Amino acid sequence: MKILEKIICVKKKEISNKKNAHSIKELEKSSLFKRKTFSLIESLNRKESGIIAEFKIKSPSRGVINNIVSVEKVVKDYELSGVSGISILTDYNFFSGKNEDLEKSRSIVSIPILRKDFIIDEYQIIESKSIGADVILLIASILSKNQIKNFTQIAKDIGLEVIIEIHNEFEINKITDNLDIVGINNRDLQTFIINYNNCLNLYSKIPKKYIKIAESGISNINNLLELRKKGFKGFLIGEYFMKRKDPGKICKNLIKYLSSKYDK
Question: What gap in Å lies between CA 210 and CA 31, rounded to an integer?
């Protein structure tokens, strides 16, 4: 069984257990469910860096990346660095993420938070709002176009923005009108191999009306400048920051350097 198939199999069992523990009606009673969300679209249009900085402890391909730093310190430092948004991994079995990481982050930062997980059920969308997310990620390779359309509408109805993540040209057909952002992932989710040129090759094939962000494998200034020149508004960066002792400091230095380049 390939990694992605294994993740989805485990995720289905996880969701079933969660439904038995807490109903959707219970989730909707959460104080965070009632809050007005922050807009990642507005933030990407307003903030120059375009950086969406990720908190990620481990991954199936890399193993443990950083299990020493606290989520509270990292996300606060990210915010102070001037990021456009923060991404929180909430999958536990394969990424050591927790819903609590997002809830803690929500309590201390006032910028958009993306809930990064493998969303395959309406329940997870309601759950995302109930734990403080502003944006959700829908992965095209694990969902049908009809599911993407329906899930996006559910998200919009409760004030969440939606990123569709695509990995190849075939998945472009799954982009629906009511989506907010298209993320192009350089990582093949079947093999977890990075192909940096994937973003560059697919950019022009995405309809112009969508904001586009680049994901995975962005590891140096030249990558960012090239992607920015191509037209990308956002850059989801996790491992580059998280593999360092002080992720927030690395993020701050990167944004400071980027600003000096953008000014020229």
Answer: 32
Q: How confident is the model at residue 238 (pLDDT cuts 50, 70, 90)?
A: very high
Query: In 10 A of CB 193, how many CB atoms?
Result: 11
The full length of the chain comes to: 264
Section 70-82 average pLDDT = 97
Q: CA 106 to CA 251: how far, in whole Å? A: 19
Q: What share of the chain is helix, strand, coil (3-state, %, to 5)?
A: 50, 15, 35
Please name every residue paired with 59 in a beta bridge, in sequence order, or none if there are none: 63
> How much is the pLDDT for 79?
97
218: which 2 tokens? Answer: 């962005």
Helix (H, G, I), strand (E, B) or coil at 254: helix
| Active-site residue list | 54, 56, 116, 165, 185, 215-216
